[in-house]
Amino acid sequence: MKPYIYITRKLPDEVIAPLLEKYEVKMWEKEDVVVPRSVLLEEASRADALLTMLSDQVNEELFSVSTKLKIVANLAVGFDNIDLAAASAHGVAICNTPDVLTDATADLTFGLLMATARRIVEAAEFVKEGNWKSWSPLLLAGNDIHHKTIGIVGMGSIGAAVAKRAFGFDMKVLYHNRSRKVELESQLGAAYCSFDELVEQADFIVCLTPLTPETRNLFTRAVFKRMKDNAVFINASRGPVVNEEELYDALVAGDIAAAGLDVFDKEPIDKNHPLLSLSNVVALPHIGSASIDTRMNMMRLCVENIDAVLSGKEPKTLVKK
Ligand code: DGY
């Protein structure tokens, strides 16, 4: 009997083609609907490998029904949807998709920063809605980006790639991270500082830190109050790092100028969420790594990792076993 691989979202046929000779492969048939929990548990109970999305909770409940499971390949660099301790206890390898998405995610993060600072989305809607009556001196004027200070919270590979882009815009780069990145300091003149110094000094505060118990609810009203009142806050990491109610209050009270958000506490965010009613919020549907080439590379990496583990080899990008 061939080993069984279950994929929790419909992926292009060409991605799974390399698996079909050696493995039995089944996919959840929908591209844009999360696999129901009961289906996932049922499939997990007979799967040798799972290819999961960040919307799937891979936890003790799942591992305890999965008697044959050897690997979970998560289609994301983040793995906060996976209980690593439970995976380890059940001897299941966890793989993610680092590196292949670094530049695409940095491009989107910097694009979101630009769109938010220069009010690009609001301006495009203004034209399409027929509101443009004349050129005028301060029409939809936003904040400068060049020569300003960017503060990056979470200087992993994506943070470093954003810093490179910022350097190209003649920005001063501050960063806060668990460890110093000495090479970035010499290459880009990036300056390490405390979280407090960063939020007080930066014109753009860019959150790229992974979601951990330490970073959950990191950005509160007290933090927004310490920012400059023309600061722009960007979040491209995970929603729960930000207290959304308090971000809303901060934006309404004018503690900061604007926010660009690619991630939310609850995804998809409800269309009636108060944050979406604000014209100084640019909201995107968690598309940091969503270029076609990058998403295809992420899928291929998951497939390679699954094939490696099921063939008794080392996967390329193991998080933890
Ligand atoms: C990740 O990889 O963690 C992103 O959030 C989704 O691409």
Low-confidence stretches: none
Tell me the CATH superfamily of the largest domain. NAD(P)-binding Rossmann-like Domain
CATH topology of the largest domain: Rossmann fold
Placed side by side, the strands forming the largest sheet appear as 8-7-6-9-10-11-12
Report the bound ligands by name, code or SMILES. Answer: (2R)-2,3-dihydroxypropanoic acid
Overall average pLDDT: 97
Determine the N-to-C terminus distance.
Answer: 25 Å
Enzyme class: oxidoreductase
Keywords: Oxidoreductase
EC number: 1.1.1.-
Protein name: D-glycerate dehydrogenase
Please describe what this structure looks like.
Its EC number is 1.1.1.-. It is an enzyme of class 1 (oxidoreductase). Keywords: Oxidoreductase. The chain is of the alpha/beta class and 321 residues long. It has 2 domains: 115 residues, NAD(P)-binding Rossmann-like Domain (Rossmann fold); 182 residues, NAD(P)-binding Rossmann-like Domain (Rossmann fold). The strands form 2 sheets. A 7-stranded parallel beta sheet has the order 8-7-6-9-10-11-12, with helices on both faces. Strands 2-1-3-4-5-13 form a 6-stranded mixed beta sheet. It is globular. The model has no long low-confidence stretch (mean pLDDT 97). The structure holds (2R)-2,3-dihydroxypropanoic acid (DGY).
